[in-house]
Amino acid sequence: MLLATLLIQYERLRGVRSSGVLIIFWFLCVICAIIPFRSKILSAKAEGQISDPFRFTTFYIFFALVLSALILSCFREKPPFFSPKNVDNNPCPEASAGFLSRLSFWWFTKMVIHGYRHPLEEKDLWSLNEEDTSQSVVQQLLKAWKKQQRQAVQHKATVEFGKKVSGEDEVLLGGRRKPREPSFLRALLATFGPGLLLSMCFKLIQDLLSFINPQLLSVLIKFISNPTAPAWWGFLVAGLMFVCSIMQTLILHQYFHAIFVIGLRFRTGIIGVIYRKALVITNSVKRASTVGEIVNLMAVDAQRFMDIAPFINLLWSAPLQIILAIYFLWQNLGPSVLAGVALMVLLIPLNGAVAVKMRAFQVEQMKLKDSRIKLMSEILGGIKVLKLYAWEPSFLEQVQGIRKNELQLLRKSAYLNAISTFIWICTPFLVTLITLGVYVCVDPNNVLDAEKAFVSLSLFNILKIPLNMLPQLISILAQTSVSLKRIQRFLSQDELDPQCVERKTISPGYAITVHSGTFTWGQDLPPTLHSLNIEIPKGALVAVVGPVGCGKSSLVSALLGEMEKLEGKVYVKGSVAYVPQQAWIQNCTLQENVLFGQALDSKRYQKALEACALLADLEMLPGGDQTEIGEKGINLSGGQRQRVSLARAVYSDADIFLLDDPLSAVDSHVAKHIFDQVIGPEGVLAGKTRVLVTHGISFLPQTDFIIVLADGQVSEMGSYTALLQRNGSFANFLRNYVPDEDQEHQEEDGVEDEEVLLIEDTLSNHTDLTDNEPVMYEVQKQFMRQMSAMSSEGEGQGRPVSRKHLGPSEKVVPVTEAKASGALIEEEKAEIGTVKLSVYWDYAKAAGLCTSLAICLLYTGQSAASIGSNVWLSDWTNDAMVDGGQNNTSLRLGVYAALGILQGLLVMLSAMMMAVGTIQAARLLHEALLHNKMRSPQSFFDTTPSGRILNRFSKDIFVIDEILAPTILMLLNSFYTSMSTVVVIMVSTPLFAVVIVPLAVLYTFVQRFYVATSRQLKRLESVSRSPIYSHFSETVTGTGVIRAYGRSQDFEVINNRKVDTNQRSCYPYIASNRWLGIRVEFVGNCVVLFAALFAVIGRSSLSPGLVGLSVSYALQVTMSLNWMIRTMSDLESNIVAVERVKEYSKTETEAPWVVQDSRPPKGWPTRGEVEFRNYSVRYRPGLELVLRDLSLHVHGGEKVGIVGRTGAGKSSMTLCLFRILEAAEGEILIDGLNVADIGLHDLRSQLTIIPQDPILFSGTLRMNLDPSGRYSEEDIWQALELSHLHTFVSSQPAGLDFQCSEGGENLSVGQRQLVCLARALLRKSRILVLDEATAAIDLETDDLIQATIRMQFDTCTVLTIAHRLNTIMDYTRVLVLDKGAVAEFDSPTNLIAARGIFYGMARDAGLA
């Protein structure tokens, strides 16, 4: 008592609000006091008087006080006054819940009720407990991992040291210790060990408790067999069974809760560690694995760890349970148990073999799945190119080829699965059969009575679980070990050396110095830059020039510390701002892109926008600077993206600016503006150190000095005038492109030459060979301006994007609303409410209705066989004794065996049927999705982030492939088990019918509440999961920029926030399962209680065999009731995958590829005439017209240049020609044939385009030139010869089979553009469209391309969208577009003479 008082006070001071220890203490006090309570009353009655009144009264006062103490301690107290204030507005009630509430998960009830009344939303979720947040978990794990790395380094050092010392001894001692790798597993254990220990304690108690019930069952059967035993004895046993079950339930769920939370932390920690690693890996590592693979580490492998958590403790718990079960069985049946155990042991290797085989299939399947997803993501990235070239069929075939192999593997593993299910069902049965058979046959005196049979049966049922789990455990361990290796390999990859650029010291007066620096992109690659010596004084403007692929971008990367330094020293003093060649834009508002994590200073911000010429664009964007920019800047044009990227640098107000060709993506007059306002000697950045990579010759005279690079070395360095006088390579280069003075007077000729001054702009839109930002496939989804309503294209700018109806779940944002928010990409909506029955029906139809029906029938048969065998057993045990033994045991055994084997066969058959059905469903659903996506119009891809479409192809298809079938099987299993239990108990003790109704009501009630909540939690979880991955892939693409600005830490915080948001829905989901489990198992425990009670009540009329049968069935029911709800809700949350796949299989498609009735004549178009008649077009319904009432006629063989301001509708016009955009009114005729009447492929395959972004797919060069294999080897070499790639390709050992990496990474942008030219030359169609194709190339390559086009396409009609007027000055006619209408259309000379818009543009460019 004294102890209790002290404890109370101590806990109150510590702020404990409800103490478990005290509750248990008072509870035991009450229990113990009940006995003297009763006996004192009984003795007083017997004696007729109270012998010791004082003692008697004090005892009853004491009892009353103890009882009240127990009752009071059950309530929780208010928090103490001095406790820290809870800042959280929605804290998790678990933290403040009382002991009993935690034990029974009562604290969760509030959420369940709320979820039942209204679908849960993000705001209803509780905050995470402090110890579960990313912040704390990731820090701990990182600390442990760093420690592992340190130890590994020390270990290596000692080994190396040992090596030096023991040179000779080595031979004698036979080798030495291998150097140790840092172990990620140890780091995990160090971090999460304590939590695991706690869960182990719970598990141990639960395992021990599970063996009490079979013992009680044997007592109960003895009681039934012995008519003289007192009745209270029976009731006591029934009560004890109930209490024991309840204890088991409570402890089991505490264990599960603990272990699942550890699983959550595993995932949080691993995601955080991988994210942090991705920010510091070297580029060679990044090149070796695609972004998809790195994201997979986070999506799949981290998830594996979460999945293995519940299995970890089976490593010791399974053997423990097996040993205990065998021990009790031995007591019951003696040595004949060994026969059964021997069989189990023999089956383990068989199970193991099946598991190993399945594992092998799985690895192979992962490979196929990876390659399919990679291909899909490339297809989605380059979907526009596929449409323009009409290449969809060949890519469709590639995907289907992979899918076919994938399904074959799936089919094999499904059959294996069926076999293992057969073993699974038959094992316990065969074991029981053999054990009982041996027991009966060994000695005729061995009598099989009810007690022996049913106690053994329930022990075998306990034994069944760990034995079934072992193979599962082995395969999960195998999978996780693969994941562990992958994660460990990734975490042990080389990191960028932060010391490679010295930031602190530098010789005075200089901002950047490089001393004999040699740099490479990877240790295995030859150095890209060698023996560089560069000194850049503070405040200087330095230009870096040189041909494509000479290492200009690499130089910038080297200064940022992105390359691996082989020798030399680099000093960079001061903060750095970096503008990459391909602008990296985040998916957030435009303002956030510019501020890039700094606080808003409106004056500086306005100045930055103004200098970068963004103000005009802001007016066009629907939400101004609050417009949401889509993934990878999809709703900005190339030039706008580049200017945003530049504005970010200007706003950052750094000391050093590294500008990697920012002027290439913008029009020439804009380039001039930006140079004057920002970069040049008069610009905003005057006085800062600026390193400008450029191709724009006109800017060079204004720079302080120029670095000329050639083949990775500095060939010349000096001021503009000095270099000209030196007469080196630079002077020659300039002379070729800058006109001699005296020519300028010859007016017309002069025009030709002078235009060079405007080369300022657009010279190199993208990247050099050595560009350091691997532009992964997704970045290439830079669907440039054309596609987006938000772009500054046409007059549509101010219009909001209202989005196509995407199925019942996604509401279209009302037009006004979208305008206000400026959001382009709609949030992915979580479905609300019950999954419709139609979805199940769809799935059943896909699987085949006959198959579905057959499966159900087979299951019914199987349950019947199972009940039959057990009833037969119960009948057997009641056999009368004849001469001290039972007769006809052989008949009994034979029938029992036959029924059992029949059950196994039926199960196997149904599993086989299931396999056939699910594979068919998987095939059909994927096929429908794929075909629909390949035929979706371009506008669909512009408004839907690629991640969301990919999610359908990866996550949802995976669920349909591998998760639905087992879930359905488990559901059927548990449903039939529960049904047969009820039937058996009803038959043996008809009284049971009375309680069935209330129990069933309670059960359905709990189930309804739970399913509503858990379904919504699961949906919220999957919706909050995608942002983690899309943010991650965005980060991986932008690591260069993030590191340059020193924002790694902020990005880690953003990642933490996204993971926490996801965990906030995971955590309640776990708790909801526990809440459910406790309540359902309570129902199950009641079934046990009533089965036992009614057996006791009706013991006069019951045979022990029947009692054994009904109670042993009742003991199993908890498990199957629990599984039933769980699998039901699992099925419901997983069938959503079918719903999502269906939804994207039904989106609207573009026009048919081939219209059989109206195919164009062979060889069409022969003349190449193009005519637009009153043509108008808009991007999507509800937006304004981009081209209005356009009428013009281009004769066959004419060369027409198309010019106009950004957003005049130039690109839109070409898209209309290919019917990427369909006419709003009017028509386009080619050779007099209306293009709207023929199939898309007939049209697109006869036109050729060289698009703006050169997009390549990973695969051979031949596949990139001719995916459908239409052309011969000679044709392809001929095309390469003409596109000046011949030397490059023939120098590659693989020739035409040269492997292009993802997005053509391993070619420079110039080379990629030449590949696009080669594609066009292969096609050799009558109409060629050039879309700003020359924007990414240096002058020499540009001349080559222009010359090739002039020669090879001299008889064709050429339409060129020109950035730079010099390319089109010799064209037949020039079309000037303004606001989507024809402003001028005539020959260049006439237009200049007319002094209209074109004259103004030419004058700006110095051509008139």
TrEMBL record:
Entry keywords, A to Z: ATP-binding, Cell membrane, Membrane, Nucleotide-binding, Repeat, Transmembrane, Transmembrane helix, Transport
Domain (ABC transporter): residue spans on this chain: 512-736, 1172-1404
UniProt membrane topology term: Multi-pass membrane protein
Enzyme class: translocase
Bilayer-crossing regions: 20-37, 57-75, 184-205, 231-252, 311-330, 336-356, 414-439, 459-478, 893-916, 982-1006, 1082-1100
Keyword Transcription regulation: no
InterPro entries: AAA+_ATPase, ABC1_TM_dom, ABC1_TM_sf, ABC_transporter-like_ATP-bd, ABC_transporter-like_CS, ABC_transporter_C-like, MRP, P-loop_NTPase
Residue stretches making up the ABC transmembrane type-1 domain: 197-479, 853-1133
Pfam families documented for this protein: ABC_membrane (PF00664), ABC_tran (PF00005)
Protein name (database record): ABC-type glutathione-S-conjugate transporter
Organism: Galeopterus variegatus (Malayan flying lemur)
